[in-house]
Amino acid sequence: MLKIIRAGLYTSVQDGGRIGFRQSGISYCGALDKPALQIGNLLVGNDPDDAALEITLGQCTFEFEQDGWFALTGAGCDAHLDGAAVWTGWRLPVKAGQQLTLNRPRRGMRSYLAIAGGIDVPSVMNSLSTDLKVGLGGHEGRLLKDGDRLAVRPGARAFIEAQGVKQLLWDNRVRVLPGPEYHEFDKASQDALWRLPWQLSPQSNRMGYRLQGAEAGAQYRA
Asked: Which InterPro entries match (predicted)?
């Protein structure tokens, strides 16, 4: 079991995503930084898309209630295990009763705590991911809060030593490809997409990015 001592601002259970239900209005969900999730899972011997904790902006504490292995990936959060520094991107052993604390990240926003065996919550529509809009999946369909306890599946492998991998660095660039509706916009609107500066809107979510920045609205072809 994993006990949530301090849940932080926005911590939830996420996996590789809920695939195949968008036609029914159910979003993909899943980890926002999927490479970080997969690296963490692989380090501790899990399947790449197994469930882990997605932690936004750190500021949380967890207590392990059983021996095992864990990996912290994604944003570096000045983490400590019983006061000893924890390296991001490393598989490390843990004993029952030890506490892991994450402070605010120095770079990035989201960290992932993967535990050998994976977080054990009920599967909903073939996924363990939390969908906050619908209130399903994860732990009771909500963000984690202080005092929650999560079951952890038995680890499939026995490790001998700690091991780490180089972390990918986020460079703040978002790749854009023309979609099916691209040619429905006039030439000026198409040029604006590539020429003008854009920012991610606070209205962005796990389903997709919404961009803001251009003053003139897009014009469709007549």
From this structure: CT_A_B (IPR003778), Cyclophilin-like_dom_sf (IPR029000), PxpC (IPR052708)
